[in-house]
Amino acid sequence: MKQGGAPPTGKWVGSPQGGVTAPDPVLLPDPATRFAATAARLRVLADKQHPMATWLAFMGQLSEAQHRAATTLPPMAAIDLSLVDQSVAARIPPLAADGHHRNSAWRDGLAMLLDTLEAHDLPEPAVALGAHMRTRSTNDIEDLADGFLRGTLSVNEAGAALYVAAALQVYFTRLAGSLKADSLRLLPQRGLCPCCGSTPVSGLITASGATPGTRYLYCSLCSTAWNHVRAVCITCESSGKLSLKGVEGGSSAVQAETCDDCQTYAKMLYQSKDTKVDPFADDLASLGLDIMVSEAGWARHAPNPLLLVG
Q1: Could you tell me the residue ranges of all domains in the chain?
Q2: Which of 96, 170, 197, 285 could bond to 109 as cystine, CB 3.0-4.6 Å?
């Protein structure tokens, strides 16, 4: 099923008269709506006298640029589905971020991002960074992408990582959107994306559809969502010492699920508290929660790729 599509029909577990509907294990992204939805949500959040309104507005512009790239770039070469099946059978992500042979189309997306952003009134640091990215060689850009995907970029490359990460999100989301959800399987490591093997940016607990109350984790790279049982730590898979933390006076729709067994936390979004929450936008807009929980001694499960430093 594509995210944003009709509610899944699912399959009955047990008796059709007294059973429950099983949630879809994997929801693949729709590149035509993924980035547009995030941009729209960021615009709303930036208009609410948010203390980071200017920065959120810029991130909204970046999401709009991602949407343009995702919807106007030429189609990429079709994925060899036999290789996808082989990877899935071996319990390996078919688009494994650290082993996938990238098509040069991802750099076309990067160029389009920069072109689109230049049409906006951007903060001076963003303008300077975009200009600098234009001067870098193809090999340099590919090295940045490799470093980002392998987690080896230096702090000095944090600025460049923003644009590289945004372009790679577009690329991998388009690839993931071309697959079939029923061809994928959840990984043994339930906290990793079954499509590309990356970590989630946040989790979302549904409030509607055939299986309300289901938790889906959203991939930070390819935007795929996958089902993960609730009340289990997504880092260490323990369940004995979990609790929810929120900012006093802040949105109850965004909580940090902390684990005292491994001292990590992950963002969880609750549609029952706000039906408009977006796994990507609301994570960016709740940095205050990250700061509060980090200062209290928990480490984030994994970074948002657009926030590798800070």
Answers
A1: 34-177, 183-300
A2: 170
Residue-wise DSSP of 133-152: HHTS-HHHHHHHHHHHHHT-
Question: What average pLDDT does range 217-233 have in this prediction?
Answer: 96
Identify the architecture of domain 183-300 in CATH: Alpha-Beta Complex (3.90)
- 34-177 and 183-300: identical CATH topology: yes
Residue appearing with tokens 């071309």: 178
| Chain-centre distance for alpha carbon 68 | 18
More confident residue, 249 or 37: 37
State whether residue 47 is helix, strand or coil: coil
* Mean pLDDT across the chain: 90
Q: Rounded to the nearest 5°, which phi and psi values hold at 135?
A: -90, -10
Q: Which fold has domain 34-177?
A: FdhE-like fold (3.90.1670)
Instruction: Report which of 212, 273, 223 is spatially closest to residue 244, judged by C-alpha positions.
Output: 273
Distance CA 155, CA 183 (A): 38
Rg (CA), the chain: 19
B/e letters for 60-98, b = 16+ CB within 10 Å, e = fewer, are bbbbbbbbbbbeebeebeeeeeeebeebbeeeebbbebe
